[in-house]
Write a structure and sequence with these properties.
The chain has 379 residues and is mainly α. Helix content is 83%, strand content 0%. The protein is built from 15 helices and no strands. The chain has helices at residues 2-32, 34-55, 58-68, 73-85, 100-118, 120-126, 129-149, 155-177, 191-220, 223-247, 251-254, 259-292, 298-308, 311-323, 327-378. 32% of the residues are buried. The chain crosses the membrane at residues 12-31, 37-56, 77-98, 104-126, 133-150, 162-180, 192-209, 229-248, 269-288, 300-318, 330-349, 355-375.
Length: 379
């Protein structure tokens, strides 16, 4: 029972952050309008991008290191954190993209996000998912409540609110983990970057496939369209992510059982795919058209559902490749998907705008699924 509770808390905590971000965007657009809220989205996109780069694959690298040398866990944590901190000056590049005041708050947000994300390995190792969930809920309450408190939108004010929210959840999680009470020892070394590089490349390949579209929309289309697209794609990516959350309780079994048993697990996931996608797509359409009032035709939501569906059919194929230490294959497929996606987006965005980007992502997802299936059959 305790194991089930831990798995459940991990699933809820993992789903909470994107769900909270989605709700904030929905009500932010509803209260302040697409154009104003899109200016905040524009800044946060670059904050998240820089934070991702500074992460340098630390999560998977450290979790593996913790399991190999549990007695040296905090030495590994502090060494990795301080070594990666040498990359923080690169956040100053944000001064080139935004006005000075906005850039300063964006740089502070990078530092805070960097620090908060660094604690994720300790959360996983100590199974403190409930503590992180509480921190996420409090931070969400600060930002969500502020949407209704302020009568007019001011970009700098909301960046300050995000800085406050991240500071609060950083403090709450730090208190729960008590990591500063451990004996301190650290070695700043280039080895941390070498060890994290394979995980960084693996994460980057996945990031390029899943995130590049919204950055192209930010660059090419109007700011109001950026807000519309983020609402749509975030909703359908959450629906897509359900495939991963369903498989979390069975991850360890994939590494232990025979191929025949894994195949039975696949069939069960396939059976859940269509009802979840249909019901989820209908719910997204209802919220977007009757609450947010985006005014999109049904074709947008059909394509969105088709974006979410393939992940249910290849998630376990990725786990099988990881089981067999074929991470390079995942990287190659992901980079191929990225080049297909970016090419289709540039080809379709001028004529079809948001629908063209959705269509590009949809085609890429189905192509990636086919490649995984072909590789599973003949690789």
């Amino acid at each position: 029972m305790r194991r089930l509770i831990t798995i459940g808390m991990n699933t809820i905590q993992g789903f909470a952050s994107p769900a909270f971000n989605f709700l904030i965007v929905v009500f932010g657009v509803k209260v302040f309008g697409k154009a104003d809220w899109a200016s905040l989205i524009n800044v946060m996109l670059w904050v998240f991008f820089v934070s991702f780069l500074l992460g340098w694959g630390n999560r998977d690298h450290l979790l593996r290191k913790y399991s190999q040398e549990p007695g040296q866990m905090y030495h590994a944590f502090f060494s990795n954190f301080l070594s990666r901190s040498l990359l923080l000056p690169f956040a100053l590049l944000l001064l080139l993209f935004f006005p000075f005041n906005i850039s300063l708050w964006a740089i502070l947000l990078v530092v805070l996000t960097f620090s908060y994300a660094s604690l994720s390995t300790l959360v996983v190792y100590h199974q403190r998912f409930s503590a992180q969930l509480v921190a996420e809920i409090v931070a969400f309450g600060i930002i969500f409540g502020s949407i209704f408190y302020f009568e007019t939108f001011d970009l700098e004010t909301f960046l300050q609110l995000y800085a406050l929210a991240i500071t609060v959840k950083l403090c709450l999680l730090s208190v729960q983990l008590n990591f500063w009470k451990e004996s301190f020892s650290a070695t700043i070394s280039i080895q941390e970057f070498k060890a994290g590089l394979p995980f960084f490349i693996l994460g980057l390949s996945g990031w390029l496939v899943s995130k590049v579209d919204i950055y192209v929309v930010d660059f090419y289309l109007e700011k109001s369209q950026l807000a519309e697209y983020q609402l749509l794609i975030t909703a359908f990516l959450m629906l897509q992510a359900m495939a991963a959350y369903i498989t979390i309780p069975f991850t360890k079994h994939v590494y232990r059982v025979s191929d025949e048993v894994v195949q039975k697990m696949k069939y069960k996931l396939y059976a859940a795919a269509f009802p979840l996608t249909i019901l989820g797509g209908f719910a997204i359409w209802f919220v977007m058209e009757y609450f947010v009032e985006l005014g999109f035709s049904y074709e947008y939501y059909v394509v969105g559902g088709l974006i979410a569906l393939p992940c249910y059919f290849y998630t376990l194929n990725i786990m099988e490749l990881m089981k067999n230490h074929k991470e390079r294959t995942i990287i190659y497929i992901s980079f191929f998907g990225f080049f297909v996606n970016i090419s289709l987006i540039f080809f379709l965005i001028e004529t079809y705008e948001i629908f063209g980007v959705l269509l590009s992502v949809c085609i890429t997802q189905w192509l990636v699924m086919i490649i995984y299936k072909v590789f599973r059959r003949f690789g």
